[in-house]
Amino acid sequence: MTDLTTSAIERVLRNNYLGHLAYLWQGKPHVIPITYYFDPADNTIISYTSEGHKIDAMRKNNSVTVQVEEIQSMFNWESAMVHGTFEELEGDIAKQKLHSFIEGVKSIIRRKERREVEFINEFSSKLYSRGIPIVYQVKILEIAGKRRET
């Protein structure tokens, strides 16, 4: 295994929209899949959720990790890890960031998967049945990455 350069880590983050979010809840680490968008201009990860233990946990302890991988095979993969702080967004900035999230993910899908998507539910499983979506970002403090190639 070798370390990824900063530009390679950013490429992994830019070229994907599915990752894993790690946070602490009641003293235990939790890791869940998320749909995200990497905003290189703000150096943030943008996502959204609904009320529940994940958002409660991040409100209490804003230290989180996001992990993203590109796996070709067991012997050929890249993994990027982001350590940062959770920040809940509100009002116009939340609307702006959610728009960036939607358009950014749609662009990645068009480029990588060569298909058109029109609605958020085509690429994100979060339902609005539990109220208004909570838009958040992870301010990136530290990044790391690994690669394995044979």
Topology:
Layout: E1 2-3, H1 6-14, E2 18-25, E3 28-35, E4 37-39, E5 44-49, H2 53-60, E6 63-73, E7 76-88, H3 91-113, E8 134-148
Antiparallel strand pairs: 1-8, 2-3, 2-6, 4-5, 5-8, 6-7, 7-8
The topology string of helices and strands comes to: EHEEEEHEEHE
Number of strands: 8
Q: What is the overall silhouette?
A: globular
Task: Provide the CATH top-level class.
Answer: Mainly Beta
Can you put this structure into words, describing what you see?
InterPro entries: Pyridox_Oxase-rel, Split_barrel_FMN-bd. This is Flavin mononucleotide-binding protein. Strands 1, 2, 3, 4, 5, 6, 7 and 8 form an eight-stranded antiparallel beta sheet that branches. The protein has one domain (2-148): Electron Transport, Fmn-binding Protein, Chain A (Pnp Oxidase, Chain A, Roll), CATH 2.30.110.10. The chain has helices at residues 6-14, 53-60, 91-113, and strands spanning 2-3, 18-25, 28-35, 37-39, 44-49, 63-73, 76-88, 134-148. With 150 residues, the protein is of the alpha+beta class. It is globular. A hairpin with a 2-residue loop joins β6 and β7 (76-88). The chain is built from three helices and eight strands; from the N terminus they run βαββββαββαβ. The model has no long low-confidence stretch (mean pLDDT 91).
Compact description:
The chain has 150 residues and is an alpha+beta fold. The chain is built from three helices and eight strands, in the order βαββββαββαβ. Strands 1, 2, 3, 4, 5, 6, 7 and 8 form an eight-stranded antiparallel sheet that branches.
